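Hi team,

Filling in the usual template for the complex we talked about on Friday. All components are listed, including any nucleic acid strands or ligand strings, so the model treats them as one assembly.

SUBMITTER: L.P.
PURPOSE: interface mapping
COMPONENTS: four
RESIDUES: 1844
SEQUENCES:
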Amino acid sequence: MFLETVRSEGLSHLSYLLGDESAGVCTVIDPRRDIEIYSDIAKTHDVRISHILETHVHEDFVSGSRELSAQTGATIYAGESNQRTFEHEAVKDGDTIQVGNLSLQAFHTPGHTPEHVCYRVSGGKGAKAPWGVFTGDTLFCGDIGRTDLLGAEQAEGMTRQLYHSLFDKLLPLGDELEIYPAHGKGSPCGGDIGDRLTSTLGYERRHNPKLQIDKEDEFVKNELGSLQPAPFYYSHLKDVNTHGPRVLACVPPIPMLDPHVFQIEMGKPDTVVLDTREIEAFGGGHIQGALNIALREEFPVWAGWMLKPDQRILLVLAEEDDLETVQRHLLRTGFEKNDGYLGKGMRGWFEAGLPFERISELSVHQLKRWIDSDWTDLQVLDVRSPAEWQQGHIPGALHLYAPFLQDHLHSFDRTKPIVTYCGSGYRASIAASMLKRGGFKEVYNIPGSMKAWRAAGYPLE
Amino acid sequence: MFLETVRSEGLSHLSYLLGDESAGVCTVIDPRRDIEIYSDIAKTHDVRISHILETHVHEDFVSGSRELSAQTGATIYAGESNQRTFEHEAVKDGDTIQVGNLSLQAFHTPGHTPEHVCYRVSGGKGAKAPWGVFTGDTLFCGDIGRTDLLGAEQAEGMTRQLYHSLFDKLLPLGDELEIYPAHGKGSPCGGDIGDRLTSTLGYERRHNPKLQIDKEDEFVKNELGSLQPAPFYYSHLKDVNTHGPRVLACVPPIPMLDPHVFQIEMGKPDTVVLDTREIEAFGGGHIQGALNIALREEFPVWAGWMLKPDQRILLVLAEEDDLETVQRHLLRTGFEKNDGYLGKGMRGWFEAGLPFERISELSVHQLKRWIDSDWTDLQVLDVRSPAEWQQGHIPGALHLYAPFLQDHLHSFDRTKPIVTYCGSGYRASIAASMLKRGGFKEVYNIPGSMKAWRAAGYPLE
Amino acid sequence: MFLETVRSEGLSHLSYLLGDESAGVCTVIDPRRDIEIYSDIAKTHDVRISHILETHVHEDFVSGSRELSAQTGATIYAGESNQRTFEHEAVKDGDTIQVGNLSLQAFHTPGHTPEHVCYRVSGGKGAKAPWGVFTGDTLFCGDIGRTDLLGAEQAEGMTRQLYHSLFDKLLPLGDELEIYPAHGKGSPCGGDIGDRLTSTLGYERRHNPKLQIDKEDEFVKNELGSLQPAPFYYSHLKDVNTHGPRVLACVPPIPMLDPHVFQIEMGKPDTVVLDTREIEAFGGGHIQGALNIALREEFPVWAGWMLKPDQRILLVLAEEDDLETVQRHLLRTGFEKNDGYLGKGMRGWFEAGLPFERISELSVHQLKRWIDSDWTDLQVLDVRSPAEWQQGHIPGALHLYAPFLQDHLHSFDRTKPIVTYCGSGYRASIAASMLKRGGFKEVYNIPGSMKAWRAAGYPLE
Amino acid sequence: MFLETVRSEGLSHLSYLLGDESAGVCTVIDPRRDIEIYSDIAKTHDVRISHILETHVHEDFVSGSRELSAQTGATIYAGESNQRTFEHEAVKDGDTIQVGNLSLQAFHTPGHTPEHVCYRVSGGKGAKAPWGVFTGDTLFCGDIGRTDLLGAEQAEGMTRQLYHSLFDKLLPLGDELEIYPAHGKGSPCGGDIGDRLTSTLGYERRHNPKLQIDKEDEFVKNELGSLQPAPFYYSHLKDVNTHGPRVLACVPPIPMLDPHVFQIEMGKPDTVVLDTREIEAFGGGHIQGALNIALREEFPVWAGWMLKPDQRILLVLAEEDDLETVQRHLLRTGFEKNDGYLGKGMRGWFEAGLPFERISELSVHQLKRWIDSDWTDLQVLDVRSPAEWQQGHIPGALHLYAPFLQDHLHSFDRTKPIVTYCGSGYRASIAASMLKRGGFKEVYNIPGSMKAWRAAGYPLE
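RESULT (copied from the run log):
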């Protein structure tokens, strides 16, 4: 028996291969769309992928189940639902799926989604008794799955279902069971998931803050009160995954465009220039109108927040080697119209003598001095989430969560200087790029942002 | 916080990196000798290696602690012992080591070795309470550490100590804690370790066969009765690790030798030709006197059984790309005199017109027919461990565990045909190569061995 | 300007990227079918592939022009021919193709094929004057292109054309020009190509043995007299390349089959088991009826000789990592029905208890002793090419070139021992596997073969 | 026989492996200091490195001959010189070195250096006659070696020697010979080397501009008049290579420093902060006093110009993956005191709340507008080489070649705005970083620089 975890950084997504070498078979649980890694791992264990298990209809990444099934012929198993429209084997509460000598028993655990199932696993040498649960988005390390993805009006009902799934179904399975969730720290599918990748039912029962409230009404109230906004692309991907994403088979390379061709392509309708360089490089010189989402770990989630599914995307990269990673992230999150990237990057653009713009980076010390002097004219904009804002912000700052900025540009004064900040400067640079695109004349970003502000010991409000 | 597991295949060794990104530091627990992997992982998390923790003096691999400390300047921590002669920080029962915001509390758990400590860990986002234990060779998934490595006369005392370490120290820490042992399936440091890489104290308390016996005397009796032979190189490596292995800094490449030079080098004293090709390739044609230990996962353990620490080793490889892996395995197990490898492999040898020998591979069907006909002359030798032998063998076979063959060649008749078999043909080929070297005229190996015999449905005794 | 050479080992095929970084474009000359390497190289130079040039209709590998054009949109240029049926730009003698600042002027050089063109190149910094010629299969380093591929009756006419192409078109271009041929040493497209990858017109004019004969009739007579047999797959690939090979876009992975499934698949019609392990491993134990073509450099040519285009192929590999290379070689030479490979290799087969066969490897010393003693019964078969045979062979040996063996098995006595040899044992093992499959009872192979025989100082005939 | 070229980008250095597979040996010609690549290539050809040939004492990179000899035991061959102080075999005019079946005949060709030798090669299948010359720094594609490296007073004498080496020794060897020089395009060891990596004696004789002047006095006058400044590190490396560089064996990893430790280390004497990010990222935010040499191809040459051999170097990288490349470049050019790099890069610095500076990037359009309006206050500084300056510059600009800026900061007005430009913005950013460090208040860089200026169609002077 072997169990391997595949981490998809950025989405904090965890998928699993669980196999029986003696029988020569394995299953993949909650695969992502770029599936080579599963075949590669299966090969190192000399097994073929015979089963694919879904815990639920994912909202935050394009499911790889159909892709993987098309390549391997493996059967897809998923919780019973009358909405799913692609071929699969429906799994009911109590069903057992046999993968060689391994048994996976399904537990219907609605709450995050209506058809969600968890799989309890037993089998392998020295492990006849059940030893683990694949908890999908029902139970995370230190948190639980969000319950508002069917819409606000259904959130209470879903939360009540989740309460029973957790307390009546999962926790009774035994303190000694390990849990294998579908997400780790940073995923917006949970509120505030912890650092660990696995945990145990006993540990969560005793220490998960959400499970310390064991009265249903209180549990529901607490949960509904703590929900943070969900990325805009979630509802689109729920549709995609319900009806089965397009099978790619192989991904066509994104064409390199020379600066002049790039400039022409930029002018076509529904096109966005996406600049994935670091924030200070973007600040130092960028193409007019470009959106800056730097290629850090949080890239895919912020791409999901800021891009539209049908938009044509033209890329500006720090270096050509980033292309594969960026394309991979975009395909995982369902953005398929990747129509070109700028050859030789900004260097090519500069050397072609084409115009560019700048956003000045301010240090927190410069900002502090500015605030201390002529505060009146200056707009300081905090673009962090409501929860972060509430934990303390720069005195006198305005607040608007970055994703909502596009629809509220009119709330600020285009003619006066505006400074954006967030936790580290990353989202602030996204926001700054949108303000610049929106015609704001004097835009500043604060690299380091609140981390730097706190490190400098400046006051909070 | 992050926790990464490094698996060293072959030795079934598990080492760990545990780090705190916010503080920029991490610790490595029980590092192996080829340490680049730890630096590489640390780099991906943007931390430096600040601490090195040993659970005990290892016997089955050369510890990498000194190597890693020499490269990084990190301090080595290890359980108090008056035998260790290299620089380290001695750890007492109850001591806590702080790695950024992570706490590692030491529990003295003698039994496998006298100075063994386990480390209980707490810390990280959502994980203030203790959540795991690095159990070293005290507790494995489905088994416990062997207690006879100080010699037979001390085994009972050590087993009693282990009993108390397990029942009085480890198990009371809580069912919900995950365990991170130093070995997985296949390591001779445990009796019969299970498939899983991690488990929980609760699972082991309820399902580990060795922990189902909670009366001390019975526990001791059972344990002493189940011990299997330990590889010969263990005692040598215990010395090496007690006094601190030589720091390599960088490993000199093994020179390629052309066939004629190889032939001359072979003739020098204390030299072994080690042929790491698959068994049927070895059988098809090999250099006279060569020892066949094929480069499968079990290679390092069998190298440890069959080679002597001060022997000069000359290599015959299936392909040049195997060189790095073979050298890595040999260095991990303390074999440093790797004086050359045969250029162009056996092909070079063949084309130089040099003489070679063969060992015929027999199928189980051929063996069965032979046994059924003229059994009288034929010696069928089972070279598996005593435990395997007892679970059933080919009727009429002789038994001698492969490692003991070298000293008992005289027990068999050199002039009559001899057939070797084991579980899969791997150890049988080692034995066959030793018999051939020992002057046996007609030696056969059985690829597939007991697996094939059982698959064919032939009778067992 | 840059010029990069892509070598396809095995086929000794040379293709080229020639580009102009300042203009951002490049051309590929005579691309192979697996085209990623061209895109990768183009990317490192920050150019796109804008042109594809064919020197002629290749016979020895599937052209990658259509594949590359489908991926990049580049135009295919090729010598005028009324047979080609896929889209391309026809090139006439004297035409110039402009790739950025580089000029490629076409010279019609019939002989190897009727529509063959060479391209003379000029351009790049410090290189305004023409500096090189892409000579395709017209002129190699130390040899010239074969002229019999349209069939024996046209060979004389083609040779006369080649004479004029060489002496009247190419050589007059100037001694100082470098030549970039489509093949290096070992390709059956030339007779006996030299070691160098490039040369100069002057060097070839002065030292190429074929060009030392400057009288047409003598040249023709010499050339026709020196022709060696061409691999069987050549005529098939000429058709494929004339009508345009299928565009693959992406290659489906070859499925892993477990031994029992493999055994069933073997039984289906038109199926060959292709064992790519080294010869002594094949000899040590192989599946009945398997064909041994070891994965050395000469693999693709021998696959071309021994396999049929429409045969289903089942693979036995030395290790799983060989799969990609083997598949690549098979696709390059037009074998597309790769229906599976044996999971865990022969080890899996052995452990499943399935039957296998052996071919004994004899050393040349054993062979010599045998010949010296009871020569009468023994058949010694030399399977080298006629040219090699004429340069000396083992006294008393029979001769038949390996590719012709399949149709002449009846020429030998199935009931008597037969020993095969070649230059190194490689082709001898192919032949031995065919004899074994053909029902010969006692088959031996000589690893090292003539190299070993000569090294041992034994007499030749 | 095989010939492989190893390109060291940045230094435009070409070294060669030339080997004879049948004899199992090869030679490396003019190896660089990081030598793994030679061993790796030798391995793929199944040969060992038996000979090392130096054409001359290199000035632009640390020779790898001693390193390679220490690892392989190969003998070093080099032209006779009474200055070299490490062990080698002295080669005289006419000597022949035999590497298996290959012959390398030495021709003493003084001019670039006094002891320079070229090696004419013959041997290999189909290549008995000499077919190539390793020309070192005597003859390049489209140019010849510079003659002023012993100092201005000896330049004339050296040039006369070079004249005779070229016209009396090399060219007479025959038009059909290929040449393999030690440098390609971009190396300051030649004046203006062409794009091709190889050429022929005939091509150079007919088209190399320097060889069109066949009268000695005219040749000397032309050559002395065209010399460009040589990088400052050349004289240091000539010493290093004359006395034999230190053998590294293995390179210690550069430690990661957290921002606060980095800040402390910066303050120590003789320390430079070297920031290798792209110019606009540097402009967007950098550590005060940092020197910007971006990690483009020209990095090593500019490191050689701007750094001092004994300086402690602290690195700021675009990403951690650049570390190995940067270290490799620095070691090749003899900078060994690489004492640390900034953990998490500038992001770590920003988040620690530490102060930073900016340099504004101006587009050529902004510069043009500025020049057109209030030219009086503005200093526009062209930092290109004298030769580039003479081919046209921005009207009204000042000129000082970047390397000389450090000693001439006082020539400009610290209180007035200063704009730097070069060919592409690369050297301009180096210069801008030096001006900023030198206390200039208002510094601008022009990304794209002259390329952009020309592309925009603005006037030149």
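MY TAKE: Residues 2-243 of chain B form a domain with the Metallo-beta-lactamase; Chain A fold (CATH 3.60.15.10). Chain B touches chain A through 36 residues (CB under 8 Å).

Thanks, L.
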